[in-house]
Design brief:
This protein is an alpha/beta fold. The chain contains nine helices and 17 strands. It has two domains: 183 residues, FAD/NAD(P)-binding domain (3-Layer(bba) Sandwich), CATH 3.50.50; 122 residues, D-Amino Acid Oxidase, subunit A, domain 2 (D-Amino Acid Oxidase, Chain A, domain 2, 2-Layer Sandwich). Strands 1, 2, 7, 8, 9, 10, 16 and 17 form an eight-stranded mixed sheet that branches. It is elongated. The structure holds flavin-adenine dinucleotide. This is FAD-dependent oxidoreductase.
Length: 375
Amino acid sequence: MWQTLRIEIVIQRNETATRADVVIAGAGIIGLATALALADAGLHVVVFERGTAMSESSWAAAGMLAGCDPENPAALRELSLLSLALYPEFLARIEELSGETIPLRTRQTLQGTDHLPFDLRALKAAEAEALAPGLRTGGQSFTLLDEHSLDPRDLGQALPAAARAAGVELHEGVAVNAVHSGGDGVVVETTAGPLTARHFVNAAGAWAGSPGTSAGASLPVAPRKGQMLAVELPGEVQLRCVLRTPELYIVPRGGGRYVIGATVEDLGFDKQVFPAQIDALLASAATLWTPLRGARIVETWAGLRPGTADGLPVIDRVAPGILVAAGHFRNGILLAPATARAVRELIGGRRPAVELSAFRANRFDGMKDAETGQA
Ligand SMILES: Cc1cc2nc3c(=O)[nH]c(=O)nc-3n(C[C@H](O)[C@H](O)[C@H](O)COP(=O)(O)OP(=O)(O)OC[C@H]3O[C@@H](n4cnc5c(N)ncnc54)[C@H](O)[C@@H]3O)c2cc1C
């Protein structure tokens, strides 16, 4: 009732003079970071979230700001470095507006790899084991990255609260059903009625390619499921940095809690957790870091990463007034501030600080559907 009334007020304002400047579909980290950046630029922003804000992939994530992960696609580097540079300001703004603290949980990552890039120094085995007592290198090279992590659940209340405090109208439980360009703007059809705006941003995560938000554009963003688990270890066991290999990661959250992930599965929108896969993940993690042997599992969950064929996001204007900010796959927590900045620049008609050609939606044109073989 309250939400319907609020939207009616917005619609009435539109009918008179002040329609929304920007409507955003999706209140994950990408939609809300973008909303905050646009509101801070003085725009009237309305976000529609069909469920609860920050409850999908952005809730499930490990929270590594893995901008220097050697496994990342090279084309992600510039956007990653910008996002890392923007992160302190992003968190400070959320803290200022929400009154909540978002602590960094770790400040370094011990990265194992079979192919160490030339610009990274391989640690001696003893150096790596000193950083992670109980580490079994298994013949891999390890290097130490100055890479931070946070707990995305710390953002779960704080980011929506910050966006609201900045003036964003966030409507939870309201889905976007259709979007049309028309006249001098965009008409957004929602489950609570239509709304007009100058711009629409599709930030619907793994659902961004569905007809309700894609506005007729071909947008091959698909869910890539990740199962994860958390264990608790006795206080004397200490791992102060993230421990990561191409196969898995162990992320200390503090207080003896360690998050371990993750599977990468193409199973549609299924979020079921399978004990056999969780057990296999824990067994692999315990082979890498022996203090995990016999560890007590305290939580399991799964999330749907928004995936694209090349592992890169889509940050683009796909039709007049219609933009996409989706497909951030394994790095959406990292990339949120830079994505928000890029969308703000596109909407403001300014040249983006980062070259966005690798993130255009039309790079998939002519791509064959993996299942049907149709172009
Ligand atoms: C297991 C796992 C581990 C991860 N670890 C990391 C990590 O360590 N570091 C990192 O940077 N990233 C990580 N990620 C990736 C990261 O979580 C995602 O890239 C990021 O959360 C994507 O954010 P988003 O806002 O696009 O999507 P989401 O958080 O999924 O938000 C999209 C929102 O859109 C809403 N929506 C969908 N359709 C509609 C509609 N029609 N109308 C209105 N709302 C709609 C959904 O309900 C949802 O709330 C991980 C992901 C997983 C699953």
